[in-house]
Amino acid sequence: MDEEKSEFGYTKKSAWECFSDEQIQEAYSFCEGYKDFLGKVKTEREAIDVISKITEHHNRKTYVNKHASAAIITKGLKPLSEGLRIIISHVDSPRLDLKQIPLFEDSESNLAMFQTHYYGGIKKFQWVTIPLSIHGVVIKKDGSKVTFSLGEDINDPVFFVPDLLPHLSHKIQDNKKLKDAIQGEYLDLAIGTKLDKNSEKNKLKNAILNKLHEEYGLIEEDFISAELEIVPSFKPRDVGFDRSMIGAYGQDDRVCAYTSLKAVLDVENPNYTSIVLFVDKEEIGSEGNTSAQSATFLRSLITEIDPNVDIDKVMLNSKVISADVDAAITPNYTEVFELKNASAIGKGISMSKYTGHGGKYSANDASAEYVGEIRRMLNDHQIPWQTGELGKVDNGGGGTVAKYFSRLGMSVIDVGPPVLCMHAPFEITSKLDVYACYLTYKAFLTQ
Ligand SMILES: [Zn+2]
After folding, report:
1. Which of 282, 303, 355, 429 has the fewest CB atoms within 10 Å, i.e. the most exposed one?
2. Cα(91) to centroid(ligand 1), Å
3. Distance 324 CA to ligand 1 centre (A)
4. How far is the CA of 416 from the centre of ligand 1 (A)?
């Protein structure tokens, strides 16, 4: 007997076979809104702003923590002491940040430049010679704020990180290891070539300073109190003849932010009170006061719902989806994946019992009971799903915010869509997986 055809065997199904033609149509139209969101949101601050606006548009309230994390609370029918349903995604993405004193001139190449320090796990060679935009805020000397979003409109200028031509890169780059070929300190942004004729020296630098003062009222010291982020200026695009995929910057993890936002806004009268959380700083280890490791914001939200509740009891009874993306099986590089357990694009959401690396080190390992509960929920709602494991054993690995919430006593599992080219300037998702993600979060919040 052919084992694969056994009624007792398990095989992953394609989302294309699980969904009806109508659902496939719905998935495509759902993703139009998603692309629009991605196009407007290139930083964690912009994500929180847009999420707040969409939420307010639905006459709902967002609780915002220091411009970079936020929450939406939905009251349920059951008492709060029976626990919360929490979905948590992160709104920061890998990028290049400007250094505190970024501006310098490279008189040999005749370029004015900004120095950067990369943020999160990037493959540095992917960030050179692509159009980049500048987003963020500068707090001026008098305390007023200037907001930047430059390089998105077709008429805006863009910026770039120069790289060496192939004719001259033999010695200095080609024979090096891929990770050493482009040094972090060389990820400087080219920002202009015009000279200030009136200056005796620093003609390039002064020309930029004059321009920044004229357009934004900035002086050089203002950069010290700034958060300026250099991100790809690509627009979100359909990918493939069948338009089945989305290519865009920042889908890790704004795909989960958008789908959980849409889910919570579509849920009415749920049994359990829920908090949909959007956090910052996941890509640098969830450090800082807007991250998942800082539980103070969450505690304040629980107190906001009921000031007299036993917070520990609420946490112990709470169930959480850590909504983050998973690595999709990548063509030509399948050897790093254990194919039975890894997730592929277009096969639905990926459910990871554990993440971590080398012997499940540093992993949240969800209990069989909780995985069973989520599995039943997915099957009951006929949502296409697959298991996820980030690479073969001892081939690397990674983590999510799951462990920080399980430490608080909650049941936590990772559920999100697979992504191709994760952390690249142009990340790829499947429209059906994105839609499956929305359906999953909605089912979870409705329970
Ligand atoms: Zn992520």
Report:
1. 303
2. 8
3. 5
4. 9
Q: Which of 232, 264, 291 is the C-terminal boundary of a domain?
A: 232
Q: For residue 336, which amino acid is it?
A: V
Q: Is position 243 within any domain?
A: no
Tokens describing residue 48: 């929180």
Task: Give the tokens for residue 141.
Answer: 């000397």
Q: Which domain does 14 fall in, by range?
A: 3-93+249-446
Gyration radius from the chain CA atoms: 23
Whole-number Å distance between alpha carbons of 383 and 20: 11
Can you read off the two tokens belonging to residue 445? 């919040």
Residue 180 dihedral angles phi and psi, to the nearest 5° = -100, -10
The tally of domains found in the chain comes to 2
Predicted confidence (pLDDT) at residue 338 exceeds the cutoff of 80: yes
Backbone angles phi, psi at 138, to 5 degrees: -125, 130
Question: Per-residue confidence at 115, pLDDT binned at 50, 70, 90?
Answer: very high
- Same domain, residue pair 305 and 441: yes
Does the structure show a pLDDT above 60 at 2? no
Is residue 422 located within the same domain as residue 276?
Answer: yes
